[in-house]
Amino acid sequence: MSHIPYTLSHIAGILQPESFIRQPGLVISQLVIDSRSVIDPEASLFFALSGKRDGHEFLQDAWDAGIRSFVISDRSCLERFPDANLLLVDDVLDALQKLAAYNRQQYGLKVLAVTGSNGKTVVKEWLYQLLAADFNIVRSPRSFNSQIGVPLSVWQINEAHNLGIFEAGISKAGEMDNLESVIRPEVGILTNIGEAHAEGFTSSAEKLLEKLKLFRGTELFIYCPEYTTGIAEKDLPGKNRFSWSMKQKADLQVLFTEPIEGRTYIRARYQGDEIECLIPFRDRASLENGIICWATLLALGYTPQEADIRLEKLTLVGMRLELKTGINQCSLIDDSYSADISSLAVALDFLNLQNQHPKKTLILSDLYETGKPDHVLYAEIAALLKQKQLNRLIGIGPHISAAAELFDLEKEFYNSTQDFIVNFPAVHFSNETILLKGARKFEFERISKLISQKIHDTVLEIDLNALAGNLQFYRSKLRPGVKLMAMVKAFSYGSGSFEIANLLQYHKADYLAVAYTDEGVALRKAGITMPIMVMSPEPSAFDAIIKYRLEPEIYNLDILKSFTAYLNEHERGYPVHLKLDTGMHRLGFDQPDIPELVNLLENLDKIKVASVFSHLVGSEEQVHDEFTKHQLQRYGDMAGQIAERLGYPFIRHISNTSGITRHPEAQLDMVRLGIGLYGFDGGLPGNKGLQTVAVLKTTVTQVKHIKPNETVGYSRRGVLPEGGTIATVKIGYADGYTRRFGNGVGQMLINGIKVPTVGSICMDMCMLNVTGLDVKTGDEVIVFDGRHTIADLAEQIGTIPYEILTNISQRVKRVYFYE
Ligand SMILES: *Cc1c(COP(=O)(O)O)cnc(C)c1O
Known about the structure:
The protein is of the alpha/beta class. Helix content is 29%, strand content 25%. Helix 5 (120-131) crosses helix 9. The chain is globular, with a radius of gyration of 29 Å. Residues 487, 489, 615, 656-657, 672-676 line the site of pyridoxal-5'-phosphate.
């Protein structure tokens, strides 16, 4: 392999730690920050970073995964892991950056760095597409651009590479210096500067100046002057500069842009001539990112003709793994974007987090990993597949086919995608999770079409990373040791069933809660093994509750008696949860019930009280704070009376989402997190700190021109006195877009512009007023997303986000993204 063989003693020489090394000659090839994503444990060095959770907590997991070498800052680990190779440093993150910076300095390759508020990843990926024909490129995986992502990216550099393209992002002042010393770019590219990530800085000027530190030592700086206003020319970085603009004189001055059949024609002035290019996208963001790439090609010395030829072939960057429903009861994870070992490891992890089918299949194309001979590359992959316990491999391409004998599992090989497609009827898929992963050249989207269920044009996209981020957000607010129950009732507030539960199980939530038994049964059938509480345990479902080890909420004496009677006489300690009414007046035991309840419980060996809980009625609003206190007090009294008589401990819980945010004293032993997971919190102004989980999209089916005084839709409710243009879109009240949104009350986004509804909402469709806009059949329409939010929609019709989310009907297909 062409990476410098870094031995532990070499690394110790670089980091100067206090070292306790048993295997000084051990060669390290992988730097690991998460024990779950190891590829080759022997050759991995684990960095115990402290983020929202302290990496030292995961040393045991890493050890169990086979890792033997660690960079730590907590001295107590020396005793806990006497047989490990330990490098004790003051600051683990700093050590990671130092090691990466060292690796960077060993090579003389040309390095491009990209930063900005938006578009970094797209620009980086597009430059890769544009330059791959001329260079052996190493680039940041996905959107690895943080204090941790950058060093991990730069660590990949080896002697086979002659060009590096890395992105850098910062969230607070002072961070860019570190990234600059790791990347040491020769060319700097500034992308769109928007409002993203303004937090962590006192002003946007401060933010920009911090960003520009990345380019301090560059030979060439490529930028748009509108994004650097307020900074004197002499203070801009770069020995040489290349500017582009759509508004003013610049090295590349865009004169006009015009959409043509889904593409954009661009004309510009460059070195005194008019030049042109065609970019295969229409939306504003892609257009701008395309122009940045155009400017970069020209600044690097490509001719306008060559740049035009290359830009026209740009393809969409889909960085996310997509989980969808497949044919024959299969789930499909679609990833036809990047085919290298590190992204394969991430995809396999996501595959392994799926429990809903017994079998796991990987369809994999030839991989392109610069600087590794085939036998080494495929042996590594074979080891990875073994480690991740894959059941079947379908290899596509001459290289992987030639390495067939290296793979020790059920396998079949095809020379090309076409070969596979021709043979498709003979390939058997049923009740399995299929990971589809191929280099772009293999056009695996053709395979995806064959094995995924057709998705209608209206889809609810769920961002699983955002959901995991929201989970971490609330976790970081909990006192150590407080447990977390994740509320996945009502199809996880409309967002999914096992898809969400798999993720929560993986992230080690302590409990799940569903409303009805059948929701719990569905989760068990999909392989969810963690404890599940059922809030409305109907007697007709006791059988299923017991069969699937679900834990009923007991809210009155009748349920308690009938459930106990139902249990087998040999049953001991079946877990149940007692619900107390402290003011909600919905379900639960009242104070006067308590004596009889405890009398009964004392003599019941069959069941065990796992927890005692209540529910806050107004945790999000200050006006109810007095009442919240009163509820807590009541809860404390009642739970205390139960505890006194039971003689064994149980979990106490009362807080919901806003309770966590606004009432730290109500955390008790556990909290129940609901709507916050999905990105909303009535107790958190502007939902600050939460990420958007759900995006609802549909498409334009037809565009019509309406004459003055004609009407639109049922009962002639839609009136356009001046005439105009309407777009019919494929979503109606049967999808959950209620009739209350009709007649201009609701709005949707088309090509970034908000447009109102016209006329009544129909069952499967509705009409939007797009007068004066460039809208075509097939255009994407956003019903809600992170900009035009569910909270906005809720306000338009006077309801709450909970109702908007849970209303989206089951016929709207859900697609899950993970990166
Ligand atoms: C739905 C529910 C929750 C979660 O409430 P959020 O406001 O969504 O966090 C908690 N506890 C009970 C009993 C619930 O029914």
